[in-house]
Amino acid sequence: ALLDSGAALGRGNGPLLVRRAGDTRPIRRVAVPGLHTTANSLMGKLFPEIEERTPLLFSRIAAAVERGDFDAGVLIHEGRFVYRERELELVADLGQLWLGGIAARRSLPDEVRHEAERLLRTSIEYAFTHPEASRTYIKQHAQELDDKVIDAHIALFVNGYSLSLGDEGRRAIEALTG
Q1: Is the pTM of this model over 0.85?
Q2: Distance from C-alpha of 111 to C-alpha of 76, rounded to nearest angstrom
Q3: Which end of the chain, N or C, is more open, meaning fewer C-beta atoms within 10 Å of its C-beta?
Q4: Among residues 77, 114, 141, 153, which one is catalytic?
Q5: Does the active-site annotation cover 130?
């Protein structure tokens, strides 16, 4: 069951399909951040002719494309902010409405799902009020350590939809999964 809180949903923050700058050859081999990801699902819907999609750890995709291991790659997370520094260029923004929801097993009691949702919402509200509280933790786990990149990443993915999907957010998820 989709939880109302905790989503990463927003406009203009979808996965990006990139390739080496100036490369005009047909795209046949693409690195994706997992076969069972929204990024790969969007790739398949928008470019069904590209059937050779190889899963690779998201933080390694840009370098693999840069080396020529793949014709293109699907970037998520911090990669969308720094791909130009690697002399990669945008082929397509795979999602004008990008989403990542949090789901819980339907077999869990309603009170457990509601408590999880309440805790997520409380955590997000705290993060909005105290943005520096998680800085050390984020830097321990981030691929890009520049404060500006971290701030842009957080601002793009943690927003009002994270507190509550609302009707618009639920319609977006239904459109992707339906």
Answers
A1: no
A2: 33
A3: C
A4: 77
A5: no
